[in-house]
Amino acid sequence: MPAYLNPLPDFPGIAEPVRRAVLIRRAEEKLLEIVRSGQAHGTLHACIGQELSAVAFCTLLAPGDVIFSNHRCHGHFLAFTGDLEGLFGEVLGTTAGVCAGIGGSQHLCQGGFYSNGIQGGILPVAAGMALAAKMRAANSVGVVFMGDGTLGQGVVYETFNIISKWQIPLLVVCEDNGWAQSTPKTATLAGDITARASAFGMRVSEDSTADWPLLLENARASVDFVRSTGLPAFHLVRTSRLCAHSRSDDCRDPGEVDRCCQADPINLMAGDDRGALRKWTAICDAMVEQALDTARRAPVLDASALSNPPRPRGHAPSGSQWTAFSPGDFSAGCGERYGVRINAALDGLLSRRPEVVLLGEDIVDPYGGAFKITAGLSTRHPGRVLSTPISEAAMTGLANGLALAGLRPVVEIMFGDFVTLAMDQLVNHAAKFSGMYHGKASCPLIMRMPMGGHRGYGPTHSQTLDKLLAGIDGVTVLALNTLLEPSEIYDSVAANESGPVLVIENKTDYTRRLGHVAPSMFANYRFTRSGAPYPTLRAQPAATPPDATLVTYGGAVATAFEAAGILFQEHEILLEVVVPTSLRPLDADSLIRAVSTARVFTLEEGSAPMGIGAEILAILAEKGARLEKVGRIAAREGIIPAARHLEHFVLPSPRTVVDRILEAFHER
Amino acid sequence: MSVKATLHLPAEFSNDDSAVVQAIYVANGEAVSEGDTLMSIEFSKAAVDIDSPVDGFVRLLCGEGQEVLVGAPLAAIFNSPEEALAQEEPSQAEQDALANGPFLSDAARRIVESDQGDLAGLGRRDFVRSNDFAQKTAQESPVADATAPRAIPAGQNRPSTTPEPLTPAKRSEVAALLGGQNQAISTFRTILRLPEHFLGDTTGGKSFFSRLSSLVVPAILSNACALLKRHRLLNARYARDCVEIYDHVALGYAIDLDQGLKVINLGDLDCSPPADVQRAILGFMKKYMTGKLSPLDLTGTTFAVTDVSALNVDHFTPLVAAGHSAILGICSPGPDGAMGLCLTFDHRVTEGKTAAAFLNDLQRAVRKELDAAPA
User: Fold this and answer.
1) Distance CA A347, CA A340 (A)
2) Which residue in A186, A301, A653, B328 has the most C-beta neighbors within 10 A?
């Protein structure tokens, strides 16, 4: 059953696919006119010449199926939804647009249709949505459209590998128009396109829009294959782009473009036409004009809808009550190793929430993850803990797709350093979906990763990249520390957050004990926490006013406490320690309430420039905190060496903290 | 519960990090009006009144006579007397923490262990610093008043091995001293045998001591400077978990003439004739006594020497200063002319072999120089 939102009027004498292709062409020609005349902001990528490929696949889909398209998405969108007004409104930037003008031409979302302007990254996301259907035993399929230019992206092959190995019902349609923007395929493509897909064991088909009746037939065969077997397939469609890549950026030989235009099936039909096609074209033009008129008349989105970035629901408003707690007083698991408590938290999520799925490298038993955090979980929750290939980008994309489909994926990045391989999925996908689709989709991804050094793993396995992550708009970044029961945080995330949440764990915390605070002088501190679900913690001397404040988080908390011990015992400088759990957004209200001195130092295991400490101090200053002396204590800039003494030299140690604070005090 | 306003100690004078609450004019829970003076604070240059910015009910967050840091809260104004009088919420935790008994800094512990301070006399505390005893003493003293010094000045009748209350200046001095030796340290000692002809009068007669200061000590200092260039790890520092070796030698010489311990920078004395060395030391002593030592005189040293040769001490453990890896101690000669040279060194930077080699080279070189000196 086609998923049309707006069925086409009947018109005898012209095949339905051709009618739809003509409508797409007339709509795009109108859009180009709008853009060229300056009525629309930005640009667009028309698919004129390729419409029959869109029609061949998109009209075969049923409710529950999903389509993921790319920058050149209008044809796919119109073939699947028929929503002219939704497209025109989006290009014109009015609320008639499917995303109210926020997404624009390349970023559409309607029903089961999604598009994103990033090359390659949409493949694993589409695969994730198809995997979700498979896990729910729905008889749904996914279709993802890519161009031949995208064959240069590595994530394409990561995805080929996973969909084939995991038998994910995804049809990959590669529309080969021979040109990657301005570069001919012949200049960039080695080997054979279909051979690439065959090499991964996928069913491969090859067609051309020139022989569109056969294309229609084979498209149906491909979709039916994927639906009936649950296996992926690859369908190459040779086609021609008759317009520029975008607006006026066509450097191709005009003669070649002319030859393509003459060979274009719709143009050929128009040449043979005895009037029917002309009449249908007139009907299409009327539909286009009407939709354009409606889209134009619609109001524009008030910018106030953007002025308050969506605040993760986990963040309680200011003024929430602070409560006392005792670090040695957790109801369960106190004294257990922190890694074991994270394992228990994940076990709890899997037990209580059927939508939770764990993905990561080497996470199934008997290995149970490089740090054993998922040990036993694959055995206790069969089918829901999945070891992926070494493909951080595809793994994260897959999780994004699962999240879009309403599941609650928890991705483990084996070493936090490897998150860079998944950056596109975080920045351009997970962090974007909800906002750019104007709330029509949400991506409740959870990604966990251990950061930090002190283990001798060397420059690429010891970093603290928190500031890279906290710099991404649209994600929540949390950092666990051993004063917090992990299940409290993970349960709260799973219960409350509708957007992506990145949870930073620390390698050295895995072997520390939950609630353990050294040295012993902290028995004379009082510990309080803000009322927010991701609380700010504060350790203050019970009665004596502290001399300075150290704000730190995550694995550096242990370093801070040790330094505080030395500073008092040997130098009689008494610190209070303030520990935010949420790095992005920082809970400014609780920070300003927690800091009680005018000498504020920050401690982070990453390097200082553009860092978390800088942000904390800036927020305190903006909020009017009295800052008499401030300092950022952090790792030295540069690489983290493997040799013990050199690593120790680079990473902040308790002694580094002591020296820096003494320096600051003696400067007075 | 809502706070209408919180008052903090203002930064009135750039030189004051803290000030003393001189008088409080309101009671906890009392109604106050905008503009009412709540308390007066004594800074180093003037007293400042703290007025309420709003109408409301006051909760005091400091006490009379208390020293408060700039930026610390002084009082909060609430909407109702109940709110103003309400206990701070974590009071139970505070009680629990106080129930553990006080936690002492190392310096405070040394005071208690040497019976120099009475812990019980301080009342219930969470943390005790060394100067808490001094404050207590100052408060109990009949002559104490608001302007009295809050700690015993450094250098008054201080026995060489007993800790005593520290002034803030002394505290930072101690911090700097301790900063260098929180890890393993050792002291090695060797004997320098003075030539027979030096021993004419070993009972402390004038000629002997004048020789000590005019020849022996200068010879030790200049030869030490020369040898530091060979034993470079003794002219180095442990900083941020690495070893930084100094490119030059700047010898620090500790003097304490009852106005506090100062380490003067004598620079590189390698090849300096004894008379020049002695003249330099005397020049610094004069500046010390007249309070004219400049920061330049006291900073930038790379190695230090403590000379107790005139104090009839035959053995001691010199303390490595922050920024150094070793210190040489010069002991008094015995009747047989045996004079101890003690080297304390930072095990994080170097090891016993180096220390021993340095000491032996030093005593040989000095002896050679003294042997050549006229009788």
Assistant:
1) 10
2) B328
Residues forming a β-bridge with A450 = A505
Q: Using H for helix, E for strand and C for coil, what is the string for A370-423? A: CCCCCCCHHHHCCCCEEECCCCHHHHHHHHHHHHHCCCEEEEECCCHHHHHHHH
How many CB atoms are located within 10 Å of the residue A240 CB? 22
- CA A511/CA A520 separation, integer angstroms: 19
Cross-chain residue pair B171–A574, CB shorter than 8 Å:
no
Asked if A140 and A133 touch (Cβ cutoff 8 Å), the reply is: yes
Q: How far is B9 from chain A (nearest CA, A)?
A: 10
Asked whether the predicted pLDDT for residue B32 surpasses 80, the reply is yes
Which neighbouring-strand residues pair with B263?
B254
Q: What is the CA radius of gyration of chain A?
A: 28
CA atoms within 13 A on the CB side of B86: 14
| A521: chain B residues, CB-CB within 8 Å | 103, 127
Q: Tell me the pairing of strands A446-451 and A408-412.
A: parallel
Q: Where are the domains of chain B?
A: 3-86, 94-167, 180-372
Upstream peptide bond of A366 is cis (omega within 30 degrees of 0): yes
Mean pLDDT, all residues of chain B: 78
* Whole-number pLDDT of residue A525: 92
Is the ipTM of this structure higher than 0.95? Answer: no
Domains of chain A: 19-296 (3.40.50.970), 323-510 (3.40.50.970), 520-666 (3.40.50.920)
User: What's the CATH class of domain B180-372?
Assistant: alpha beta
- Token digits of residue B118: 């009475």
The pairs formed by A325-333 with CB atoms below 8 angstroms and a separation of 24 or more are A325/A527, A325/A528, A325/A529, A325/B93, A326/A527, A326/B93, A326/B96, A327/A483, A327/A515, A327/A516, A327/A517, A327/A522, A327/A527, A328/A515, A328/A516, A328/A517, A329/A515, A330/A485, A330/A514, A330/A515, A332/A485, A333/A485, A333/A514
Tell me the angle at which helices B130-140 and B168-179 cross, rounded to the nearest 10 degrees: 160
* A528–B93 CB contact, under 8 Å: yes
CB A63 within 8 A of CB A3: yes
B182 contacts A542? CB cut-off 8 A: no
B242: closest chain A residue by CA? A649
**Rounded-to-5 percentages of helix, strand, coil across chain A:** 40, 15, 40
Distance from CA of A521 to the nearest CA of B (A): 6
Q: How confident is the model at residue B274 (pLDDT cuts 50, 70, 90)?
A: confident
Name the band, by pLDDT with cuts 50, 70 and 90, for residue B134.
confident
Residues in Cβ contact with A436 at an 8 Å cutoff, skipping those fewer than 6 apart = A99, A102, A103, A107
**Architecture category of domain B3-86 in CATH:** Beta Barrel (2.40)
State how far the Cα of B192 lies from the Cα of B362, in Å rounded to an integer.
Answer: 9
Instruction: Identify whether the C-beta of residue A326 lies closer than 8 Å to the C-beta of residue A474.
Output: no
CB–CB contact B105 A598 (8 Å): no
Distance CA A479, CA A452 (A): 12
Residues belonging to chain B with any Cβ–Cβ distance to chain A shorter than 8 Å: 2, 8, 11, 17, 68-73, 89-90, 92-94, 96-98, 100, 102-103, 105-108, 124-127, 129-131, 171-172, 175-176, 178-179, 182, 239-242
Which residue from B291, B308, B294, B304 is spatially nearest to B177, judged by alpha carbons? B304
Tokens standing for A474? 């649209």
Please say if the pLDDT value at position B158 is more than 50.
no
Give the DSSP per-residue string, A161-200.
Answer: HHHHHTT--EEEEEEE-SEETTEEHHHH--S-HHHHHHHT
Q: Which residue stretches of chain A have pLDDT < 70?
A: 1-6, 307-320, 329-334, 667-668
